[in-house]
Amino acid sequence: xxxxxxxxxxxxxxxxxxxxxxxxxxxxxxxxxxxxxxxxxxxxxxxxxxxxxxxxxxxxxxxxxxxxxxxxxxxxxxxxxxxxxxxxxxxxxxxxxxxxxxxxxxxxxxxxxxxxxxxxxxxxxxxxxxxxxxxxxxxx
Length: 140
Prior knowledge:
mainly alpha
């Protein structure tokens, strides 16, 4: 009455060699890079303290300042991995940065500059400042 299904036939019908399927990787596109940078820092500003307090409530012997310091280090260095790929000499990147102006992005850049200033990582601050300058020239 019923025939058995061959699971291999089902999954093989979606092979990577299918010409009808297009795969595009946007993870290196400037819009994605700027968006991820902004999202990481904005989310951290909104939820970071809440997460620290929940950890301290579970393990009261943990120093709240140490947890915050570790969290900031991870966050800002991960955000840096994204924004560092913005090439401020590439005309396409420049135009996309100018077109991406938002107060949240400017605030995120300011926040990152402040963090990296305290760590004396001035090369990172310079890169961030150049991106901010491009953002602000787009609104003049």
